[in-house]
Design goal:
10 strands, alpha+beta, about 260 residues
Length: about 260
């Protein structure tokens, strides 16, 4: 899988209309938050209302990074998902270190308590029938959302599709594969059972921690987001904050876990 990361990646203000589903319907937004695994992270879903993002639901992530948001009678449209720190001091937000280089005082596989809110965003879409499409919350989804916002001002379906297609082309994967829920690359059970797409998304997410090497992870993510935006959905092939940096880091994680 490590070599396939290189082979795959080296190939070349208006929000959506709101359509209300039946009032009795419940739309469930289920996915995961991974940059390593985020435990006790607070996921907030917001909808664009009267020129601002208005929170409509929150949920906490479990020890596997999974979360579930239940929205009663939610109108069709785009939701912006944002990951924040727990506001309950007895249950702080933790991240499992998935970088062979380590995460500050935490070694690979150990939990690290987060004191700075994770710079992670994603999105979900509810259709007229109440069915949900959601992108897992990772550094990759953050690149998609922030690039889409730079194009449209407000998230809409066309901007999100364009941004996701750009990132998929950059990484040499299908747009659909980016929607695959990632997992814990420090877990032998996950590594043994995960699909190729889940592994790729997990390794690319872990690559950001690897590149940070115990430094400011949010700063690393922001640098790649800014580069992705300024290069119109691309990254430089080499140099600082480049596709080569991302691939080398992902391959280092893959080699460390033996996939």
């Amino acid at each position: 899988l490590a070599s396939s990361l290189f082979l795959a990646a080296c190939g070349d203000d208006k929000s959506d209309a709101v359509v209300s589903p039946p009032p009795s319907s419940v739309s469930v937004v289920q996915s995961s938050a991974i940059k390593g695994v985020i435990h006790n992270g607070r996921v907030q879903a917001s909808r664009w209302v009267d020129g601002a993002w208005s929170p409509v639901a929150t949920a906490m992530t479990d020890e596997a990074g999974a979360f579930s948001l239940n929205l009663q009678g939610a109108p069709a449209g785009i939701l912006r998902l944002e990951l924040a720190l727990s506001d309950e001091p007895p249950t702080p937000t933790r991240m499992r270190c998935d970088a062979p280089a380590g995460c500050g005082a935490a070694a690979f596989g150990e939990w690290q308590t987060l004191t700075t809110s994770p710079a992670l965003l994603s999105w979900a879409q509810i259709d007229a029938a109440g069915d949900v499409t959601v992108m897992p919350i990772t550094p990759l989804s953050t690149m998609v959302v922030r690039y889409a916002e730079s194009l449209s001002g407000v998230l809409n379906e066309s901007a999100l599709t364009f941004a996701r297609n750009r990132l998929a082309a950059l990484l040499g994967v299908t747009p659909e594969s980016l929607m695959t829920r990632p997992g814990d690359v420090t877990s032998a059970a996950f590594l043994a059972s995960a699909s190729a797409d889940a592994l790729r998304v997990s390794l690319f997410s872990a690559a950001f921690s690897q590149m940070s090497a115990g430094g400011d992870l949010n700063q690393t993510i922001d640098a790649f987001v800014d580069a992705f935006i300024s290069n119109n959905g691309r990254l430089l092939q080499a140099g600082n904050v480049s596709l080569a940096d991302l691939l080398i880091a992902a391959t280092a994680v893959a080699g460390h876990v033996g996939v």
